[in-house]
Amino acid sequence: MKKLLANRVNTLTPSSTLAITAKAKELKEQGIDVIGLGAGEPDFNTPRNILDAAIESMEKGLTKYTPAGGLPVLKKAIIDKLQRDNSLTYNPNEIIVGVGAKHILYTLFQVILNEGDEVIIPIPYWVSYPEQVKLAGGVPVYVEGTREQHYKITAAQLRAAITDKTKAVIINSPSNPSGMIYSREELAELAAVAEEKDILIVSDEIYEKLVYNGIEHFSIAELSEAVKARTIVVNGVAKSHSMTGWRIGYAAGNADIIKPMTDLASHSTSNATTTAQYATVEAYNGPQNTVEEMRQAFESRLEKIYPQLSAIPGFNVLKPQGAFYLLPDVAEAMAHTGYDSVDAFAADILTQANVAVIPGSGFGTPTTMRLSYATSLELLEEAVRRIDAFVKSKWQD
């Protein structure tokens, strides 16, 4: 029999996030009291007005195909949002709606990358960036944002990584997994290098609304028309409006890139789910008070759980500025508990302490773990108590 699988799938690394989540689910089904801190989604239900708008659209019979790039009424809602929140002006032909921000990123890399093109990916990174680049024939080029740099890269690092094969750099702010945010000044320095070297900027802003302690999110596309012209802004309602399962994301950018993305989508998905698109119209056009209420809840949890996690022996934690993750460096804890692999460390925390965390190896940081605080404070505090007891039970001086 001929070889069944394409070569491209041999390069894929399974998602560590989904793997841990699956193992935690398996243990729960066995009756084990597992606390899951792996999920990258809010624990709130989608706001009532959005649910009602979805139901109303279905009852009106609005359940048919839509244009591949998204409903015109949704594109207008996105354009209005970008103007209102980010002072960015776009036309409908510069917007594409997709099946979640992940699908938007996948489609983007498919249309901009040729075989061997390089994409600069700061470490730590969201697990799917490298895989999507590789699936498009591209080559991930990693640049480390160290803990001392608050997990952000510098303009000098970016310049040093660029070659004649570099096509784009990915900026994720607020970041998954670190929760760190690039300041306007830091973004301006990175943008200057991108302009100088003539590369694209992929700005993943999916956690834009989840920022804390008075820190503001700033889109790199806001810097100037020239920067905007080379930037593809990627966003969606999954995190901001607790709509992860609705699968609506979008890109805003140069029409010469958005059009082929739309053409590709027409052959892959036809369109994002119609009902979810109408729900998203309400998400952006309706009241935004629930967005702020959820943000405040996450900030309150962070303020309470951050000092508790930091008190665990060998856990060195930078306080995040956004998103809903903590990324402790556990190198010291591992050294004192006999572990030389964060994957094994996280696996034993799951099976022995019954807490699911994501090993940092999947984010390019093999001495860290990601913990989501998108769950109740009661469960968060119990999870920290369990991890603390686990570490202390194995601690060796």
From TrEMBL:
Keywords: Aminotransferase, Pyridoxal phosphate, Transferase. Its cofactor is pyridoxal 5'-phosphate. GO terms for molecular function: L-aspartate:2-oxoglutarate aminotransferase activity. This is Aminotransferase. InterPro entries: Aminotransferase_I/II_large, AspAT/PAT-like, NHTrfase_class1_PyrdxlP-BS, PyrdxlP-dep_Trfase, PyrdxlP-dep_Trfase_major, PyrdxlP-dep_Trfase_small. Signal peptide: none annotated. It comes from Lysinibacillus parviboronicapiens. CDD domains: AAT_like (cd00609). Residues 33-387 form the Aminotransferase class I/classII large domain. Belongs to the class-I pyridoxal-phosphate-dependent aminotransferase family. Its EC number is 2.6.1.-. It is an enzyme of class 2 (transferase).
